[in-house]
Design a protein that fits this description.
This protein is an alpha/beta fold. The chain is built from 14 helices and 9 strands. The protein has a single domain, classed as TIM Barrel (Alpha-Beta Barrel), CATH 3.20.20. The chain is about 45% helix and about 15% strand. The protein has an 8-stranded parallel beta barrel with strand order 1-2-3-4-5-6-8-9, surrounded by 4 helices. The termini are far apart. Bound molecules: (3S,4R)-3-hydroxy-2-oxopiperidin-4-yl beta-D-xylopyranoside (XIL). The site of (3S,4R)-3-hydroxy-2-oxopiperidin-4-yl beta-D-xylopyranoside has 9 residues, from loops.
């Protein structure tokens, strides 16, 4: 619809005023130096090489904290929510979707020229009773389809990639987790989820997200067997998202490179989706961050996200650990500089 010039200007102005905070942040992120780090922002180094450097675990409420929002917009070119897209959070009652928190993240990302990854279509937690009480497979499948469609249609063109299934395998390996989806649909729930997701959004990249495969060789093989089976069955999957929550023990050199090459041979992408390092040893933490990102980039990974960036809002199972790249008062730690150096040193993305 064409509006008179004045009205169009008014609408634009109102939009600007509503999001003025985000625009101020964008302006800040264009500065040469990342606020207080003494060097360029991570996203600036990444963008020279077409790399996504993101932060997951973004609870929209954290954006109320100006420092949090400033560092997020300044350092990262991708974000994903923490729990807000998990079933219980976004779809707490059969007839009600709670869009507001995720909409807020998407708006923030748009204003700050960031992309958004959807996380949580199927996760191992957070499923409401109205869903898990459905025992008939056809009805369960219908519930899954309408849930995926509602969410993926709303965010089509706004979320460029999704973790469709998260943590399909048992934590230590040894078979599939018998989660709420497995219980009703059996092991085929994974293939079904990807098919429903592709039908709901033909353009978004679809990932299977898994933990601990970098440190457990048996589980690594199981994931490979699972994913290569999906590919053989023509299931629409674009890649593997490695969580990479690392606790104390460095990843054996070469493991990331091997995974990238194995999945590449299947026509799939590998990403790092939730990197963080849980240890009380700051030197070891710096080294692990640097080594992981360095090897990942050299292997050709172009999409790396951390699971949060400030220890102020960290999710850890190791008491006392401060797993992220910035401390509680937003000062960059050794891990930040190690990641920065890895991005800077990379000659070019593959
Ligand atoms: C975590 C959240 O960070 C916590 O707030 C929540 O209590 C539990 O889930 N892998 C995942 C994430 O894919 O969804 C998990 O997020 C962390 C592990």
């Amino acid at each position: 619809m064409l509006l008179p010039e004045d009205d169009r200007f008014k609408i634009q102005l109102e939009g600007w005023l509503r999001s003025r905070h985000a625009f101020i942040l964008l302006a800040a992120s264009r500065g040469k130096n990342g606020f207080g780090t003494g060097t360029t922002p991570l996203r600036k180094e990444a963008e020279k090489k077409d790399i996504l450097i993101g932060s997951g675990a973004i609870n929209p409420a954290y954006l109320n904290d100006t420092q949090f929002a400033t560092v997020l917009a300044q350092q990262f070119n991708s974000l994903s929510p923490e729990n807000e897209l998990k079933w219980n959070f976004i779809h707490p009652a059969a007839d009600h979707y709670n869009w507001e928190p995720t909409d807020r993240l998407v708006d923030f990302a748009e204003c700050n020229k960031m992309v958004v990854k959807g996380h949580g279509l199927i996760s191992s937690c957070c499923n409401p009773d109205y869903l898990v009480n459905i025992t008939d497979p056809a009805l369960f499948r219908a519930a899954m389809t309408s849930h995926f469609e509602a969410i993926m249609h709303r965010y089509a063109g706004k979320m460029d990639r999704w973790d469709v299934v998260t943590e399909a395998l048992a934590t230590q390996g040894g078979g599939l987790q018998e989660n709420d989806f497995y219980k009703v649909l059996g092991p085929n729930y994974i293939a079904e989820a990807f098919r429903i997701a592709r039908a709901a959004d033909a353009d978004a990249k679809l990932f299977i997200n898994e933990n601990m495969v970098e440190s457990l060789p048996g589980k690594r093989q199981e994931l490979y067997d699972l994913v290569s089976g999906l590919v053989a069955d023509n299931v629409p999957i674009d890649g593997v998202a490695l969580q990479m929550h690392i606790t104390e023990v460095p990843v054996v050199p070469g493991v990331i490179t091997q995974m990238v090459s194995d999945y590449y041979a299947l026509g799939l992408e590998v990403t790092i989706a939730e990197l963080d390092v849980h240890t009380l040893n700051a030197t070891l933490q710096t080294q692990i961050y640097g080594d992981v990102v360095d090897e990942a980039l050299r292997a050709g990974i172009t999409d790396i996200s951390v699971w949060g960036f400030t220890d102020k809002h960290a999710y850890t199972w190791l008491p006392g650990a401060k797993p992220l790249m910035f401390n509680e008062t937003y000062h960059a730690k050794g891990a930040f500089y190690a990641v920065h150096a890895a991005l800077e040193d990379l000659v070019s993305a593959h």
